Amino acid sequence: MPFNSYEFLVIFMPLSFAVFAVTQRKSGWGAAYLVLAAASLVFYAQLSLALLGILLVSVVSNNVFGTLLSRAAQERAPANKLLVFSIVANLFALGYFKYTNFFIDISNQLTGAGFSHLQIILPIGISFYTFIQIGYLIDAHAGRVEPQPIVRYTVFATFFPYVTAGPLVMQKEIFDQMTNRTDSALDGRRLAVGLTMFAMGLFKKVILADSIAPFANVAFDGVAGGGVIDPMTAWTGTLAYTLQLYFDFSGYSDMALGLGAIFGFMLPLNFNSPFKATSISDFWQRWHITMTRFFTNYVFSPMAMKGMRKAMEENMPGMRKFVVSGGWPIVFTMLVAGIWHGSGWTFVFYGLLHGVAIAINNAWRQFKMPAISPVAGWILTMAVVTTGLAIFRSPDMSTALTFVSAMWGVTSLTGFGEGTAIVLQYRETWIYILVLGTIVLAAPNTQEILSSEWISSDRKPEFVKKLPSVIAWKPTYAWSAITAVILVVAFANIGADSSFLYYDF
Question: Could you report the per-residue pLDDT of 92-101, keeping only the tens digit for each?
Answer without folding.
Answer: 999 999 999 9
